[in-house]
Specification:
CATH class of the largest domain: Alpha Beta
Strand content: 15-25%
Bound molecules: NADPH dihydro-nicotinamide-adenine-dinucleotide phosphate, the ligand O=C(O)C1=N[C@H](C(=O)O)C[C@H](O)C1
Order of helices and strands: HEEHEHEHEHEHHEEEEHEH
Structural class: alpha/beta
CATH superfamily of the largest domain: NAD(P)-binding Rossmann-like Domain
Shape: elongated
Radius of gyration: 19 Å
CATH architecture of the largest domain: 3-Layer(aba) Sandwich
Number of strands: 11
Amino acid sequence: MGETILAELGATEGAVLGGAAEAAGHPAVGRELGAGDLTICANTSALAHQCDVLVDFTAPAALQANLDAAIDGKAALVIGTTGLGGEHHDMIDRAARDIAVLQTANTSLGVTMLKALVTETARRLGDDWDIEIVEMHHRHKVDAPSGTALVLGEAAADGRGVDLAAVSARGRDGADAKRKAGEIGFAALRGGSVAGDHHIVFATDGERLELGHRAESREIFARGAIRAALWISGKEPGRYTMEDVLGL
Ligand SMILES: NC(=O)C1=CN([C@@H]2O[C@H](COP(=O)(O)OP(=O)(O)OC[C@H]3O[C@@H](n4cnc5c(N)ncnc54)[C@H](OP(=O)(O)O)[C@@H]3O)[C@@H](O)[C@H]2O)C=CC1
Ligand SMILES: O=C(O)C1=N[C@H](C(=O)O)C[C@H](O)C1
């Protein structure tokens, strides 16, 4: 995503690249960025001091360091990293007392709209409609289910008025894997170069309703992240969402 965002930035009016960072010792550190005399650095705090907004697409293990760097440099932060747990959301909530932070599992307009459709559909259909979420991503993806699938699960659970943790079935396998009433099931497929497909299936006796989104390339995520960065620049401390950015 770092490379895709760099490529998209050049084509975005109003956005100016302040730099890029990798972990210390990474082979890319020192590489020229092709914009002025910028190179990839290994000091995210220093980067935050020279930028209005940091954009983080890394891994959960890097989150606290990136939050600390943004606070140190008084920069706003857009977080696209997935695989986050409750402890990571607590870290983000704490940081949001000092800086503006937007965390989202999916920066695309389509998925942001889809969440609202899923909540509304789950709210209106009765409990006799089973809900299953299927996602497919490229062979390099490390976390499963995808962050987006989990957010869509939350959206469905919200519509039903239930707690996702209490009803989610994450990967069925074996001789005793029959669907339980009220479950929200997840299935994760991995292969090739798929940018990101998500489908929510509402199934009852005799019919199925399917809502879905297909990302045709990673550029949509990069464009969404840059749009979020431009929007959050200069905002008061607090936690913001893609819905805020898109005015939904
Ligand atoms: N919100 C959204 O719309 C989207 C979110 N994502 C999410 O963004 C994240 C990144 O995805 P992607 O770009 O495909 O992944 P990549 O593995 O290609 O890139 C991750 C980068 O983060 C670096 N990194 C990993 N761990 C650390 C660490 N502890 N400290 C510093 N740097 C670290 C990696 O370095 P190294 O090369 O050494 O591993 C690498 O440069 C994932 O969580 C993915 O799910 C992806 C697309 C869209
Ligand atoms: O890792 C990816 O590629 C993607 N990750 C995000 C997720 O986990 O939902 C968003 C998108 O689907 C691509």
